[in-house]
Design brief:
The protein is an alpha/beta fold and about 160 residues long. It has a single domain, classed as 3-Layer(aba) Sandwich (Rossmann fold). About 35% of the residues lie in helices and about 20% in strands. The protein contains six helices and eight strands, in the order H-H-E-H-E-E-H-E-H-E-H-E-E-E. Helix 5 links the parallel strand 4 and strand 5. The longest helix has 15 residues. About 25% of the residues are buried.
């Protein structure tokens, strides 16, 4: 039964992922929620849809969520990973986890440049569990999205009756 559940991504994760893709800017701060659960959801989405979703962590560098063994060479350091994201001409969602302050001036500048929505292709840089000082520093450059789904429950018609 476990394998069947893993075959399709959780609905909550899909909705959050879609909100990230619909964000008006290239830099998203994902607020609240359980980051490890979200990473599992996003990993399932990447594997199910084939989407290019990457995770950067200080101890592991930049790697694909779709293929756990696929690492992007030369992207161990944050600055190198940010430059890679900036130069990529392809669709991609890049999750940054465990960012530590202070960021170098260059890294902060690269984040601000990535915040500008690129023309022609979708690229989203998503900060997970970002330190509040960094969120404050980025200000309006970053789009804030809550990872909690407070959506109203819509009634559905089932067997001739409305159910919630």
């Amino acid at each position: 039964m476990q394998s069947m559940m893993a075959s399709s991504p959780p609905k909550a994760g899909v909705e959050i992922f879609e909100r990230i893709l619909a964000a008006p800017g290239g830099l998203v701060v994902l607020e609240g929620g359980d980051s490890s659960a979200l990473l599992n959801d996003f990993r399932a989405i990447a594997r199910h849809t084939g989407q290019a979703v990457y995770l950067w962590q200080p101890d592991q560098g930049l790697g694909s969520l779709r293929d756990a063994h696929a690492r992007v060479p030369g992207c161990q350091r944050l600055g190198n990973a940010l430059r890679y994201m900036q130069q990529s001409m392809h669709f991609g969602v890049y999750l940054l986890s465990d960012l530590e302050l202070p960021l170098s001036a260059m890294d902060a500048t690269l984040l601000r440049q990535l915040a500008r929505a690129p023309g022609g292709h979708v690229r989203r840089v998503v900060l997970l569990d970002a330190p509040q000082a960094l969120v404050d520093h980025l200000g309006e450059a970053a789009v804030r999205i809550s990872s909690r789904l407070d959506l109203p429950v819509r009634p559905r018609l089932r067997d001739g009756r409305w159910v919630v």
